[in-house]
Amino acid sequence: MGFFDNEKNVKEYIKMAEGYSGEGLIEILKQYLSPGSSVLELGMGPGKDLDILNRFYQTTGSDHSKIFVDLYLQNNPGAKVLLLDAVSLKTAYRFDGIYSNKVLIHLTKDQLATSIKRQKEILNKNGIIFHSFWKGNTREEYDGLIFQYYEVDELKALFKSQFDILQIQTYQEMEADDSIYIIAKN
What we know:
Blueprint: H1 7-16, H2 23-29, E1 38-41, H3 48-53, E2 58-63, H4 66-75, E3 81-83, E4 95-101, H5 109-122, E5 123-134, E6 139-142, E7 145-148, H6 152-160, E8 164-171, E9 179-185
Parallel strand pairs: 1-2, 1-4, 2-3, 4-5
Antiparallel strand pairs: 5-9, 6-7, 8-9
């Protein structure tokens, strides 16, 4: 059982995440991905970024947690949402873009490498990926939940084997240069 398969943990996360969204990141994504494109959000959680993405794209939300998926569907019946693991990405759908906001940090480095390869397979030609990460060189674990931090050069090395990197940039979420986003093209 994973961390987000526990309803108490999900509710605590939703409360902790209040006031945070990827609105600024999505503004950057819009410079690279045309309106109306199909986008898969990995790890939608409570759906804040999914709601923003839906304003501009044909979005499919996904999460590994059935609790998050069910909660979102309760409030948004008819939304396109998949119960999906970010590593194996077992879906027959293909997308013009794949987006995640501090989700892939919960994978081990080997799992991230597998996810990157799989993302390439489900992305349409010239498709765009956009992911954000915490910056640093540590790994923490809390109640079975991994927090893997990355440096810019390490992310470049992981993604350049599968994608053409368009931009990789540090930014501030809570403190100066505590985060990194990467945009790459298939």
